[in-house]
Amino acid sequence: MLRPHVGLVAAAGPRLVGACFGAAGPAGRGPRTGFIDLLVVDRGARRQGIGARLAAGVQERLAASGCQVIAVRGHGVHYAWPGIDVGYTAAICMAEDLGFRRAGCEVDMRVDLRAVPLDTALAGERLRAAGILVRRAGAADDGPLQASLAGTWIPDWIGALTAALRGGRGGLHIALHGQRYVGFCAWGVNRLHEIGPLGTAPDLRGLGIGATLIKRCLADQRDRGLAAADLGWAGPLSYFSSTLNAVISRTYWQYEKDLTAPRETASWQDKIGLI
After folding, report:
1. 5-105+252-272: what fold?
2. Across all residues in the chain, what is the average pLDDT?
3. What CATH class does 115-226 carry?
4. pTM
């Protein structure tokens, strides 16, 4: 799904020392959200305010396109991270100094592909006896898959499944009940070691469809030579822990700024004295 993108770069003579890119989310019923997708500053040029100016410039352009909220989190089909890694102190400090407020927390979970059992033969037979076929998606699914899932799943997930079908790097496994697509799991949409999205039709949960799909994807990754896989935006955590022995590997804070809220007059330097 194409969205309006904006980008700025900073240069010192002929050398690029920084860049910031963002995108405007779709217009809907609520406030339109713009996203800061990438902000990078050369190590030798940091602590000079370059990142702050780049972020402010992208924010202004997103606001001019109608965005009322600016978010720092993953969005769309292709994204860098679900938010800012809690260990990335400099980025967190800059976001908060620029007036962004924490709006959520997401985690990745890691699966050791050398240790977790991934055979799904028996599970596949049980599902087949219940009228559910689990298989690898192919070119013939491109179109019917999206049409079948569109009424249940968010557009970003449909876009990710489309990317998995057409990308050729990773893979996609699906479950069908007759002509209805009732489950899916993709891998390699953004990075080869990543799993997702994963979903099962609400009325058919508890049958083992999701576990079968994700294990088939993990087996693909193992066969590609990967030692570990990451579940992005993971949840429910207990399900993946018990099913795959997955452990939390990274934690991200997500940030938002409401451009319609009254501006605070005190500078961040002033606030330090109030803490």
Report:
1. Aminopeptidase (3.40.630)
2. 92
3. alpha beta
4. 0.87
